[in-house]
Specification:
Blueprint lengths: L1 E7 L2 E10 L4 H13 L4 E5 L3 E4 L1 H16 L3 E5 L3 H9 L7 E3 L2 H6 L2
Parallel strand pairs: 2-3, 2-4, 3-5, 5-6
Antiparallel strand pairs: 1-2
Helix pairs in contact: 1-2
Length: 110
C-alpha cells in the first residue's frame, strides 16, 4: 500500500492506495497518528483508491477518529468505492463518521 499525504486549505488529506488489510493497516494508522501528533487535527481520509478494507483497516480509522475527537478535531472520509462503502455500512460506521462524495466536499466541510 502506498499512502499520499497532502495539505489542502489547512486540512490534511490522506490517500491510501491499494488494499487496507492486516498487513497495510498499521502503516495507515501510523500516518494518521503522525498527522495528529504534528498538530493537524482536521483530517480527510480519501478512500477512492482503496479496493478492499478489512476489520484491521476499520479499526485504524476508528482509532484515528477517536484521537482526532479528543484533540478537538475530526476525521472525515471521502469518495469511498462501492465495495468500501458497503463495508462501512455493514460496520455501522456510516452513522458515526462523516462521509462525503468527494475530497473537496470533505475538505470544505471544515
Amino acid at each position: 500500500m502506498d499512502i499520499q499525504i497532502t495539505t489542502v486549505k489547512g486540512v490534511q488529506l490522506i490517500q491510501p492506495i491499494g488494499r487496507l488489510d492486516g498487513d497495510s493497516a498499521p502503516s495507515l494508522g501510523d500516518a494518521m497518528r503522525d498527522a495528529l501528533e504534528s498538530g493537524n487535527t482536521q483530517l480527510v481520509l480519501a478512500l477512492d483508491s482503496v479496493d478492499y478494507i478489512s476489520s484491521a483497516g476499520l479499526r485504524q480509522i476508528v482509532n484515528a477518529y477517536k484521537r482526532a475527537q479528543k484533540q478537538g478535531g475530526d476525521l472525515r472520509l471521502s469518495s469511498p468505492t462501492e465495495r468500501v462503502m458497503a463495508v462501512l455500512e455493514l460496520a455501522g460506521l456510516d452513522r458515526t463518521l462523516s462521509i462525503f462524495p468527494t475530497d473537496m466536499d470533505a475538505i470544505d466541510s471544515y
